Amino acid sequence: MTKSNILKVRIRKYHLKDSNFSLDVDLNIPSTGVTALFGPSGSGKTTLLRCIAGLEKNQQSELSLSNEFWQTNKISLPAHKRPIGYVFQEANLFPHLTAAENLQFAIKRADKSQSVISYSEVIRLMDIEEILPQYPSQLSGGERQRIAIARALLIRPKLLLMDEPLAALDDSLKKEILPYLEAICHSSKIPIIYVSHSLDEVIRLADHMVVLEKGRVVEQGETQFLLGKLGTFFSRHKDASVVITGIITEQSAQWGLSWLHFDNQDIIVKQGNEKIGDQLRLRIQSKDVSLSLSPQEDSSILNRLTVIIDDMIKDPKDPSMVMLRLLAGSTPILARVTALSTHNLALSKGQTVIAQIKSVALLR
Ligand SMILES: Nc1ncnc2c1ncn2[C@@H]1O[C@H](COP(=O)(O)OP(=O)(O)OP(=O)(O)O)[C@@H](O)[C@H]1O
């Protein structure tokens, strides 16, 4: 990341009107990929997005994208002049206009000098060709949100802000929309800041993460790195997980399985559409990892990795559980086991053990 090629967000002690809340952040956000903004309710995620969008007036902040300044103590580009697309929980479409007319409205606002993504590409990615003639009231919640995302892209923004875009949808609609979001996140060149309470969504979409608490940044870094750290917001999360990236090196049609190779190790996954040579990411949840001192050859679990215990921490909220950071080569894996098991097995840092992985989820 070169210094000029980033979104710089420096907000000094911004006190929200009629509130005790203050925001104080200093962030360098990569100008490619998805940065997830995570944190408890009331930690300031929406306020931070509103500051970036120019919806909160704050003379003491400094905002720039690739050396284009939107806010300094001398400059304050109004919200409507900032090259930003915004997607909220609710689609907020004009009810008296069809989906196509809603999109035309965005195209009129588009920054013609930007050529990030074409109209046909947006329609294809969001798969909305057939619903364009409909009015918002004739669309499902998921369809409306796909139009809202298309609209945000068609203004040709230099930055896309997404504030819990799936939160208002039920679980089945979330599942329906997530692949569209993945397509946008991975094929558009626009940096995206994505607010969510769902670790599941963040793991699927984000390359980088920022964690806010009480208006301050408490963690930031690459997704893969942060997820594998102990003592963080993520390692304390009930769905604490790591993400592993590897290459498919072997497949068995007879057993319907693929072998994913990473860091001199192999993980066996259920075979899907992937081919030998494909790069895939998979998620391993800490609760799906158990430990043994010797290889359990008589176990039905296929994935057994030789690992070294790098660190272990008692769960501060539940002292009967311990989170262990294991290293498979240099790749971290988290295991959540009972404190009694760590005592019975006399587990300690530096020890070599076998991690038995009960299940893995392929991400893409
Ligand atoms: N209009 C307002 N007036 C007064 N206080 C506000 C206002 N908007 C937000 N706040 C307060 O500012 C703080 C930060 O709110 P913000 O909405 O940015 O948090 P958040 O992390 O986005 O929360 P959530 O995850 O619940 O959406 C909270 O304490 C909230 O109560």
Automatic annotation (TrEMBL):
SUPFAM superfamilies: MOP-like, P-loop containing nucleoside triphosphate hydrolases. Residues 298-364 form the Mop domain. InterPro entries: AAA+_ATPase, ABC_transporter-like_ATP-bd, ABC_transporter-like_CS, Mo/tungstate-bd_C_term_dom, ModC_ABC_ATP-bd, Molybdenum_import_ModC, Mop_domain, P-loop_NTPase. Signal peptide: none annotated. Keywords: ATP-binding, Cell inner membrane, Cell membrane, Membrane, Molybdenum, Nucleotide-binding, Translocase, Transport. SMART domains: AAA. GO terms for molecular function: ATP binding. Pfam families: ABC_tran (PF00005), TOBE (PF03459). The keyword Cell membrane applies. Residues 1-239 form the ABC transporter domain. The keyword Transport applies. PANTHER family: ABC TRANSPORTER I FAMILY MEMBER 10, MOLYBDENUM IMPORT ATP-BINDING PROTEIN MODC 2. This is Molybdenum ABC transporter ATP-binding protein. It comes from Marinomonas colpomeniae. The gene is modC.
